[in-house]
Design a protein that fits this description.
By secondary structure, the protein is α/β, with parallel strands linked by helices. It is built from eight helices and seven strands; from the N terminus they run ααααββββαβββααα. Strands 1, 2, 3, 4, 5, 6 and 7 form a seven-stranded mixed β-sheet that branches. Helix 6 packs across helix 7. The longest helix has 17 residues.
C-alpha cells in the first residue's frame, strides 16, 4: 500500500533470477497491452485499486490472525501436489465480524480428496496450525476429469477468533493437465520439484488426532 512499508523474504531463489522473472512478466503483460497498477502509478492508488482499499473496516483487525498466519503457512499448500498457481482475495464481510479470505491453489493431480482434506487438517493442526474448524465442504474428486476440478472447503475461526477461510483446491487432470505439461515442459518440471512429499506418519498422526477436516462430510 502507498506510504506504508513491508518486506517479503523469498527462500531458495537467486535475487537476480527473481528480477529477471519480474522483468519477463512485465514484458509479457506489455505484449497484451497490460500494465501492472504498481508500474503505472507506483506512488499513488490506481483507480482500479481504490474499490478494494476499504478503509476503516473493523473486520480487518479482527481477522489479522488469519491473514498473518496463513501467509506464514503458505508452504503447506505444496502438499496438494505439483503447485501450478495460487491466488487469494478478500471476500465478503462476515455477519458476525471479521473477513472471509479465499484462496484457490491450483495443482497437478495429487492425492484427490485425501490431498485437500489433508491440507485442511494441516492448516488446523495443533501446535503448527491455526485455530480453525471445517464447517462446510463440497468435494468433486469423484467426478470425471474436466467436469469439475474444484473442491471447496470452508473453515471458521474457533472461540473468539473472527474470520473465515475458504479454500478452493483446483486439481488439473486429464486433457487440461496434458496441455499444461506440453505448453511449458521445463516450467512444469520445475513445479514438480516444488511438490512437498508428506511422510506416512503425518497421515497416521492426523487420523489419531481426530482432525475434523479428515472426516469432513461430502455435500451434494
Amino acid at each position: 500500500m502507498p506510504d506504508t512499508s513491508t518486506s517479503v523474504t523469498l527462500l531458495g531463489l537467486d535475487p537476480d533470477e527473481w528480477l529477471r522473472a519480474v522483468d519477463a512478466q512485465d514484458r509479457r503483460l506489455g505484449a497484451y497491452g497490460m500494465t501492472p497498477c504498481h508500474r503505472d502509478r507506483p506512488a499513488q492508488w490506481h483507480p482500479a485499486e481504490r474499490p478494494y482499499r476499504r478503509p476503516g473496516r473493523r473486520g480487518t483487525a479482527a481477522s489479522a490472525w488469519l491473514t498473518s498466519g496463513l501467509l506464514r503457512r503458505a508452504g503447506v499448500i505444496r502438499t496438494l501436489g505439483a503447485p501450478l498457481a495460487v491466488t487469494g482475495w478478500l471476500g465478503h464481510h462476515e455477519r458476525g465480524g471479521g473477513e472471509r479470505w479465499i484462496i484457490d491453489p491450483t495443482f497437478a493431480e495429487g492425492s484427490g480428496a485425501t490431498g485437500h482434506r489433508r491440507l485442511m487438517a494441516l492448516l488446523a493442526a495443533p501446535d503448527w496450525g491455526l485455530p480453525l474448524a471445517t464447517v462446510d465442504e463440497h468435494c468433486s474428486c469423484h467426478l470425471p476429469p474436466g467436469y469439475s476440478d474444484q473442491c471447496t472447503t470452508v473453515a471458521a475461526g474457533l472461540a473468539d477468533r473472527r474470520g473465515v477461510l475458504e479454500v478452493r483446491a483446483i486439481q488439473r487432470r486429464g486433457e487440461r493437465l496434458k496441455r499444461i505439461q506440453e505448453y511449458r515442459p521445463a516450467t512444469f518440471a520445475a513445479q514438480q520439484q516444488l511438490a512437498l512429499s508428506v511422510p506416512a506418519w503425518v497421515d497416521r498422526w492426523l487420523e489419531r488426532s481426530g482432525s475434523p477436516a479428515a472426516k469432513a462430510p461430502v455435500l451434494a
